[in-house]
Amino acid sequence: MQRRTNRTLFPRALAALFFGCSSLCAAAGPEFSGVYPALAFFNDGNECGIGAVVPWQDRLWVVTYPPHAPNGSDDKLYEIDENLNVTVRPESAGGTHANRMIHRESGQLFIGPYAVDRDRNVRVIPPASMPGRLTGTARHLLHPEELVYFASMEEGFYEVDVHTLTVREIHPDANSLPDRGGTLLPGYHGKGLHSGQGVLVYANNGENSPEAMRRPDIESGCLAEWDGRGWRVVRRNQFTEVTGPGGIYGGGNPATDPLWSVGWDHRSLLLMLRDAKTAEWRAFRLPKASHSYDGAHGWNTEWPRIRDIGEADLLMTMHGMFWRFPAGFGVDVTAGIAPRSTYLKVVGDFCRWGDRIVLGCDDSARSEFMNKRRAKGEIAAPGRSHSNLRFIAPEKLDGFGPPAGWGAVWMRDRVSAGDSSDPFLFSGFARRGVHLAQECGQAARFVFEVDRLGDGQWTVLDSVEVPANGHLWRAFAPGETGAWVRIRSEQDCPAATASFHYSSHDPRDTAADPLFDGLAPADSASHTGGLLRAGEGEGTRLQFAATTMADGQPTAAGYYEMDADMRLVPVDAPGARQQLCEKVAVPAGVLEVDAASVLCLDDAGNRFRLPKGNAAFDRPGMPGGERVAREVCTERDLFNAHGTFYELPAENAGGLRRIRPVATHNRRITDYCSWRGLLVLAGIAADNPAENTHIIRSEDGQSALWVGEIDDLWKLGKPAGHGGPWKDSPVAAGAPSDPYLMNGYDRKSLELSHDAKDTVRFTMEIDITGDGWVACAVFDVAPDECFRHEFPEGFGAYWARFTADRSCKATAWLVYE
Description:
Elements: E1 2-4, H1 15-20, E2 41-43, E3 49-56, E4 59-65, E5 77-80, E6 86-88, E7 100-103, E8 108-111, E9 114-116, E10 122-124, E11 134-139, E12 147-152, E13 157-161, E14 167-171, E15 188-196, E16 199-206, E17 222-226, E18 231-235, E19 238-243, E20 259-264, E21 269-274, E22 281-286, E23 306-307, E24 313-318, E25 321-326, E26 338-342, E27 347-353, E28 356-361, E29 385-387, E30 389-392, E31 404-415, E32 424-425, E33 431-438, E34 444-451, E35 458-466, E36 471-476, E37 484-489, E38 493-503, E39 527-534, E40 542-550, E41 553-562, E42 568-570, H2 576-583, E43 591-593, E44 598-601, E45 607-610, E46 629-633, E47 636-641, E48 644-648, E49 660-664, E50 671-675, E51 678-682, E52 684-685, E53 695-697, E54 704-708, E55 721-731, E56 740-741, E57 748-754, E58 760-767, E59 774-781, E60 787-790, E61 799-804, E62 808-816
Antiparallel strand pairs: 1-6, 2-29, 3-4, 4-5, 5-6, 7-8, 8-9, 9-10, 11-12, 12-13, 13-14, 15-16, 16-17, 17-18, 19-20, 20-21, 21-22, 23-24, 24-25, 25-26, 27-28, 28-30, 31-38, 32-37, 33-36, 33-38, 34-35, 34-37, 39-40, 39-52, 40-41, 41-42, 43-44, 44-45, 46-47, 47-48, 48-49, 50-51, 51-54, 53-54, ...
């Protein structure tokens, strides 16, 4: 048996601390925000995600995966003990697997193609016997004590004897078919599998078409059920998790337990609930925290889960939000779903292990797949794909990003008189509101109904009238409560939109947490920065081409490498620094800063404007530039503009139209990258504090880097900024301004002014869904007037733009606090 021991991790004497105390001892080895860099997992594929993490027989079991390996790979099954010693199991066969189930009767954990018994003996089902990218394992409908089902991502369905591991093929995996296309169900890219109520339920979350590679709003995915005789399509949307109260063990009471499935469409998240009495599914909608998951191809979602973490509520992950999910969620009681916090990490699986939540992540891929864009340039990828685990205290799940989300029940949909929308979540957020818009030649009335207790009893909350071809913002007061809300139209409407914008109070201010002490401020004249890359080779060291600034001038340059023990050492390798600078050069001309704001263009040439931060960013920083965009989690980009970090979805998931701010840092961060599960930042002040353990100083004392975890960025400071589409700008009558970002900011105010001799009428349009415009307000501004407008608390929109009814020089200035 091969064994790899991470000597810098938990010594045995500290095992009791890990399992019995709320904090880990610093002597446990290099650890930053719950990530142990020496624990990183590597493969030779274009991606190395962690597909499953399961506690079993006093061990944590982990499988990694590459992007497409239906017949095995160099990925491993890992066994981790209480001291974080890692055993690479010699039975490892690899493959792209994320399935896991514990079979009570035989006392086995099924994870990937492996069966692990109570004595931790491992048996493997060879890929030749059960080919495919295994995505789910479920209890058998007829013989659950003896058999289990396996499903692959390409509709391979198998029946396996739990004792002999004999495989019977129910339907072949599509990778073995000539066209490699699905033959049973619409959609592709299977994600979830669960059984109960006499059916086997399977979900896929993608579409295999050229159009799906470009647009996130096409028909895609499928939720389907099989009764042993044939398949029935339940809903033609993108779905991932399928589970029930039995969770990883399968159905405890399969005849009566509810079944749950989570998915999405271009409007919002979807939650499906199967009623055991009627065998029918009910649909509910929830807001999305992030649009980075929205690709219609389905590649960006990994494996969202609903899992038991040892608390009264289950934990659900979906579209960048941690959710409380009631363990008793069922047909008669649907109340209680609530957001915990938002996150940036790509979480493939999670579990409770001892007194920690373990997140299995997808961190650093060698391939960008389709996530390429001009703003990143031709930056070299990490030398090897790798990912890591993160260990956090359960209460930390509430302390990532503040809960906020956006979702629609209708998006330019045809609605008939009397039609009611799907129920939309109405609880869990402090500030709630909805934009209503309709494209009808006459005014239209819409009725809001509320299910107050989650018991299916609906009462009228209010009714509103939306003007012909008009828009209305309806804020919900704190006293307007309930589990779910739905909207009913009283007229036929050819195109109706109802887009909810929710947020909770952001407790942050503009000051950063002390863990960021030492990052160079925007106006710093003396600091160390440079360029970064996760290098090549077995150990994958971090490479750093450093530049030191003193009084605004570059004074020194060096080349450094950092290993898993977090030693940053100078390396005398002729040409290495220059070679690294060429591989990860910052592309020029990505952003343009003018008097109004920050102008950026997407790859199609569409113009967008972002707020400004500290005025020092109007001037150039370090020679070579400062990084604007880089992938920091697999198919997730971090965007850095004028002192603010943003989450930037891939172009085929909305791109710049769906960007959201994370934090305003106002620091001279020259570069950043993902490495061994950590986020590494370059840009350290010369007078950095010695007590900040997140700063790694070089052994020669000339350079330094900051290391932490990507979701630490929420602690950098509340998103804030100022600017607008116009600042004393020439404006042509009737010509709309560039779009200016509104999404993700807290308190918002507007100022309008102009130089015309007569009153100017300004029309403000907003993008309420991330893909179109509605007229929101009209402001008449007199000559020499500076008109001011405070937006209502909780008012949300993705973008704003303005038109003037006469040519003039105008200013449209927004302040976000």
